[in-house]
Write the structure tokens for this entry.
Amino acid sequence: MIKNMFRKLGGIYPSLVCALTLNPVWAFASESGALAPVAVESETAWWVWPVVLLVVTFVMGIIAVLGGVGGGVLYVPIISGFFPFHLDFVRGTGLLVALSGALAAGPGLLKMNMASLRLAIPVALIASTMAIVGAMVGLALPTNVVQILLGATILGIVVIMFTAKKSAIPDVKQADALSSALRITGIYHEASSGQDINWKVHRTPLGLATFIIIGFMAGMFGLGAGWANVPVLNLMMGAPLKISVATSKFLLSITDTSAAWIYMNKGCVIPMMVVPSLIGIMLGSFVGVRILKVAKPTFIRWMVIAILGFAGIKALTKGLGIDFF
Amino acid sequence: MSEPKITAQATEEQLLYANILEKGMLIGLILMFITFALYVFGIMPSVVPLDEISDYWNQPVHLYLEVIKTDFLNWEHHPTGWTWLKLVGNGDFLNFIPIAILSGVTIICYLAIVPGLFRRGDKAYAIMALAEAAILALAASGLLAVGH
């Protein structure tokens, strides 16, 4: 049993790197919170935090790929919890981080016909509209309220990740009237079996209604929403898992664009944060794809759940003004 | 018009969307590397000096903008919305160009697929694509700005 534990811990690289890169952050950042109303002169050289951000988002990019999560859901809770940046800027950057990942992956997924434009267009129309509303509401609320809600949402995401099942090819007996009218259906080539899989969806009105909530939360918190898109597309609407994952990734390029513009126009974008974050996440994703073959995805996923749980509690306590760590 | 046969291949509109998205993404990324280098290596001056930006990123956005307006720009209004265009001669705000490209390429993708959708008689999707482009353009316009 102990040998099994050590074998599982064989994926210790990501956790060691996380501990190393996050430790100085915990040491320096937890006291330099976002409550000071005036400029606080920093003793740290200006380039230190962008470099730390680059390294941490690089690790995040690797872990996101290995753990099967999007960069956005990791970025906002971790960076807002452990870095000295205000939540306004973290949310704006988080959306751009999630957007950049979607832009990088989207074209390939569309060309392979794994992401479905027919499925995405009606969903995106609702989600992107609500993301705008969410962003406007999020920027209008006091920061501590958003922090508390963010913490609660992250902990909810942890529960979803813990409990959500997946269905590779759901059994959709009959498409509903709406999806039939819109011809939300398709065929994709399943490489593992060499077969062409016909797919259709059901419960389309319910699914579209759920995207009202998803879009709102994505805009409000600067999260990518992939954590919610996939279960709704796969388990609720019955799209095959691969179509759901690919379409979800592509969807982020639309949902996050709409909210990102709100944050940009409000001035919530600091290039010194955005660019290192985008470069870090994209390079990390690139490396993550390459080590996916040898890594232990199950262990990584548990680690992601643990990190998010910790970040969620940190966000909650920060919003409540409780200083546990 | 008869409905097109569904195959395992991506549709014409899907491929067009993908190609435009890919080109926009690459242009935005390459430009981002260039503009960021011009900024961090001090090749271009910046509105907020490099060694002072860390004094402000821990503040709420309205205080950050107030500081920029009064201490650095001497403007009457905050540099929000598209006013960054007036500041592209500065390294920090020059980076907004690639960010805007990455954020805006989706609007172009949607507009590009509309004619094909109408041609194929797919009116519902053509209207949804136009609606989406309008919503994204509205978000980009800055007309929806609210804040703390």
Summary: Residues 3 and 207 of chain A are 45 Å apart (CA to CA). The radius of gyration of chain A is 20 Å. Chain A has one domain: 48-320.
